[in-house]
Design a protein that fits this description.
3-stranded antiparallel sheet; flat; 4 helices; 2 domains; 270 residues; alpha/beta; membrane; 31% helix
Length: 270
């Protein structure tokens, strides 16, 4: 025999079902908050580390460039003074980088943190060894890590000229030759050495002539091209590329006695 369920009992059963369903549903809001709280600092730390590495690389490049500038200044004074002074090297390095730039950088001590005391110059060979040492501090001192030491080194050579006795006789004339040329030139600005290059269209090329009255023909190296081409006043070839090897001249100054076997230039060699 079925018993009748009263309305008040039905309401109690509905509330009990809701309570049991709520109790069985997992709560995820707390775990998501914990993961977010852990991920944000890690992401921030990764970004800061990347920026810090970029700053370290920028400082190293700046110190290397400043050391090169200081070496150039030191080599200019070698003829007047013997050796190089470390204090002068440091001064020029800081001047090249900028004292304010070093003060707000990661270099320990700012502009006073660059040490060039190990720089030296060999009087016998004229070769200078430049050295710049500095320390990089961590932005956040953790785990007791000490500043990292860096050192930039380079070698430079001073230009002291040459001995006249080792460069031919005192009466030996200086002439100019190229690596593949068969003649020597007395004038450095000879038209065969100092090429006057012009760009013209392929259409007007037919009516153009060189200084000798000759026509222009395609270059054996670059083929001549199709659009705009390049010609010289003294040559008889047109070129499709400005970087063609036939348009390049590597000129060497040598004594006339070392140009044996080469003929004189028809323009400047007489």
């Amino acid at each position: 025999m079925n018993k009748k369920i009263l309305p008040s009992k039905i309401r109690n059963l509905i509330y009990a079902g809701r309570a049991s369903a709520s109790a069985s549903t997992p709560v995820l809001s707390g775990s998501i908050t914990i993961e977010a709280a852990a991920a944000v600092p890690l992401f921030f730390l990764a970004v800061v580390s990347l920026l810090y590495l970029m700053e370290m690389m920028a400082i190293e490049c700046a110190v290397r460039s400043g050391l090169q500038y200081a070496g150039k200044c030191a080599m200019e004074d070698v003829g007047r003074v013997t050796g190089i002074r470390a204090s002068e090297i440091e001064k020029n390095v800081v001047h090249a980088i900028g004292a304010e730039r070093l003060a707000r950088s990661v270099v320990e001590g700012g502009d006073a943190g660059v040490d060039c005391s190990e720089s030296c110059l060999s009087v016998r060979t004229g070769i200078g060894e430049l050295s710049a040492s500095y320390q990089v501090r961590l932005p956040i001192p953790i785990f007791g890590i000490k500043p990292v030491k860096y050192r930039v080194k380079m070698k430079i050579k001073t230009w002291t000229g040459y001995e006249k006795s080792g460069f031919g006789t005192s009466e030996d004339e200086t002439v100019y030759v190229t690596a593949t040329g068969m003649v020597y030139h007395r004038d450095y600005h000879c038209t065969y050495l100092d090429l006057s290059i012009h760009m013209v269209s392929k259409e007007e090329l037919e009516g153009l002539r060189n200084d000798s009255g000759g026509k222009y023909y395609p270059c054996e190296h670059c083929g001549g091209g199709w659009g705009g081409v390049y010609i010289t006043d003294s040559g008889d070839r047109y070129h499709g590329s400005l970087s063609c090897s036939a348009l390049k001249r590597t000129v060497y100054a040598v004594p006339l006695s070392e140009a044996a076997g080469k003929g004189a230039c028809s323009k400047c060699g007489q």
